[in-house]
Specification:
alpha+beta, 3-stranded antiparallel sheet, 10 helices, 46% helix
């Protein structure tokens, strides 16, 4: 293998194999770069875990990746896309090292002080790469689920035939089919999780990813908070400790180090937006076709109201709640303070989740009384 820019003097026949399993391309890249500093340069990858290295003169070599997989019926643009990309990469000093069975290509370049040391050095390019990896992994997950359903249907058909023929059966294949269906569905769920994880990671620059790995700058808190007021107090306490909210789920909160000083938070939801609209004698935002909560009309109105009141958007929780942040002296109340004491039922589990929960509880009570 030619190490362009490194000019490594390789010892003839001195090769080494290492077996590693990475679920983070950024960690894999950092490991390969550490190997190059020790004088071992990547030459081949097999089945994603078997790495072959060749001995050479140690140098600061950078690695990066991209994926090139053609569709079943590629267009002319898709056929030429890899060729154009490889030419562009070569002009920037990157050379192709190898690729694995998933058509993930590895590129290398010598580190340049003050130079462009990212193969994908703009957000649009990183978005395109991240989307390719996400789509590929989601497709693999869907294929696993598909084959699980095929095996399940074959098992049902086999049982039906044996029943019609009144043939004896010990049913061992039923357990085998069930095991495969469970395995395929778990694989499908894992691929989906992995797809989202890779997409998030590949959107980051090298520096952003390294910063995100610094435990002193970022932290995650797992906490179930049932009221809006409790959530506000929790976030303001974190702000007082120097951490600002960046994202959240129903029970997880992600923070980064902040020097913005004392910050306060407020929450907004579809119910509160409509309450404000009715107070202004305006029509509420309602969509009878929006069964899954995908219509963002209320969010558009919420952001507009919040910006007028001096608040800054922080994050949204699955189209059920929006969190805003601001300095106490620069903002005015977005909603009635009494709404801060409200229960977070809808924002935690969603409108339909709350309906199902209440229906289940009511059904349990009625069933118990009837019994």
């Amino acid at each position: 293998m030619k190490k362009e820019g490194c000019k490594a003097e390789k010892a003839a026949g001195q090769r080494m194999r290492k077996y590693r399993l990475f679920i983070s391309y950024q960690k894999e890249r950092r490991w390969l770069e550490q190997m190059a500093l020790e004088g071992w340069f990547l030459t081949d990858i097999r089945v994603g875990v078997c790495y072959t290295f060749e001995k050479g003169e140690p140098c600061h070599l950078l690695y990066d990746i991209d994926q090139f997989r053609l569709s079943k019926n590629p267009t002319l643009e898709e056929i030429h896309r890899k060729e154009i990309f490889l030419e562009m990469a070569k002009e920037l000093g990157w050379h192709e090292v190898t690729h694995d069975e998933a058509m993930v290509y590895y590129f290398a370049k010598r580190y340049e002080e003050g130079g462009i040391n990212e193969l994908h050095n703009d957000l649009q390019s990183r978005r395109q790469r991240a989307a390719k990896f996400r789509v590929t992994m989601e497709l693999q997950g869907s294929q696993m689920v598909f084959w699980g359903m095929i095996v399940l249907l074959m098992d049902i058909a086999a049982n039906l035939v044996l029943t019609l023929k009144q043939a004896p059966s010990d049913g061992w294949y039923n357990w085998l089919a069930l095991a495969f269906v469970l395995y395929s569905n778990l694989c499908g769920m894992w691929y989906r999780w992995y797809a989202l994880r890779c997409e998030k990671e590949l959107l980051l620059t090298r520096r952003e990813w390294e910063d995100s790995m610094d435990p002193s700058r970022y932290k995650t808190v797992r906490k179930l908070i049932l009221t809006n007021r409790g959530l506000s107090r929790f976030l303001e306490k974190q702000a007082a400790e120097g951490f600002a909210l960046t994202a959240m789920t129903a029970v997880r909160y992600f923070f980064e180090e902040s020097t913005a000083g004392r910050q306060i938070y407020t929450m907004d939801s579809e119910r509160l937006v409509n309450k404000r609209l009715r107070a202004r004698h305006r029509q509420a935002i309602e969509d009878g076709k929006d069964w899954n909560g995908w219509n963002n009309d209320w969010e558009i109105q919420s952001v507009r109201d919040a910006q007028e009141a001096g608040w800054h958007f922080v994050c949204a929780l699955e189209n059920r709640m929006i969190i805003y942040r601001g300095a106490s002296d620069d903002v005015r109340a977005l909603n009635d303070p009494r709404d801060e004491k409200g229960f977070r039922g809808v924002s935690l589990i969603g409108k339909y989740g709350l309906v199902l929960l209440c229906s289940g509880a009511l059904g349990a009570v009625v069933g118990f009384l009837i019994a």
